[in-house]
């Protein structure tokens, strides 16, 4: 009986280790996906900033072309001032000159704003490109490490499963079958000791008659409260003896 109890405890330890190992393995794809999302976010941000840079460069070229056209119109209007013959014509041409000057000022102001924006965007793009190169290398190393870790965990799981099968073959089927059934239903710890008439799985008192039967039979029982497999701890067995 003592050997059966110890083997069940050993089996449970293996299962708990397997549960921990599998949980760790299950987290790896999530970690890899998170790293890949980080790269995708950086790439998306870089593409967006490059698009803004391209749009501002196009607008700057357009405004510079418009400015050249306005300057040409301004020159022609000034030349016309020397050729006008009436006061009315003079006022009309003077209005053209003023309008062209005003438009030129607006265009020059917009071009200066765009130049500042372009400087800022170029710095942002350069920073993102450097960051992307750096993180791509780092994440590549991290993913490689996680992939290797997955392979190591798979080997560990295989080894533990082999160990479990060998141990399972040594346990009385009436105990192992009950253990497997409870393990699937309850999960976690299903083999626990009894101390001072209390199940250490649910920490509830066992019925007196039930506990007396345990003291008499020294057998593995099922806790009437939580359904775990229970056994007398050595201190209880010694008291009984």
TrEMBL record:
Residues 25-138 form a coiled coil. This is C4-type zinc ribbon domain-containing protein. Residues 11-185 form the CT398-like coiled coil hairpin domain. Residues 199-229 form the C4-type zinc ribbon domain. Keywords: Coiled coil. Pfam families: CT398_CC, Zn_ribbon_9. The lineage of its organism: Bacteria, Deltaproteobacteria, Candidatus Zymogenia, Candidatus Zymogeniales, Candidatus Zymogenaceae.
């Amino acid at each position: 009986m003592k050997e059966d109890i110890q083997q069940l405890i050993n089996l449970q330890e293996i299962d708990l280790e397997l549960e921990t190992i599998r949980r760790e393995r299950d987290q790896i794809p999530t970690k890899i996906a998170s790293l890949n999302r980080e790269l995708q976010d950086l790439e998306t941000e870089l593409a967006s900033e490059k698009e803004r840079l391209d749009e501002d460069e196009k607008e700057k070229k357009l405004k510079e072309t418009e400015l050249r056209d306005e300057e040409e119109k301004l020159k022609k209007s000034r030349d016309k001032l020397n050729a006008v013959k009436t006061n009315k014509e003079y006022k009309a041409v003077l209005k053209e000159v003023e309008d062209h000057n005003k438009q030129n000022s607006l265009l020059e102001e917009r071009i200066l704003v765009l130049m500042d924006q372009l400087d800022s965007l170029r710095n942002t793009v350069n920073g993102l490109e450097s960051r992307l190169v750096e993180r791509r290398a780092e994440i590549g190393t991290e993913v490689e490490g996680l992939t290797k870790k997955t392979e190591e965990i798979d080997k560990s799981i295989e080894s533990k499963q082999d160990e479990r099968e060998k141990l399972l073959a040594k346990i009385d089927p009436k105990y192992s079958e009950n253990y497997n059934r409870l393990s699937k239903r309850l999960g976690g710890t299903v083999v626990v000791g009894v101390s001072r008439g209390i199940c250490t799985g649910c920490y509830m008192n066992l019925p007196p008659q039930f506990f007396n039967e345990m003291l008499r039979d020294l057998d593995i029982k099922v806790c009437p409260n939580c359904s775990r497999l229970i056994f007398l701890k050595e201190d209880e067995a010694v008291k009984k003896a």
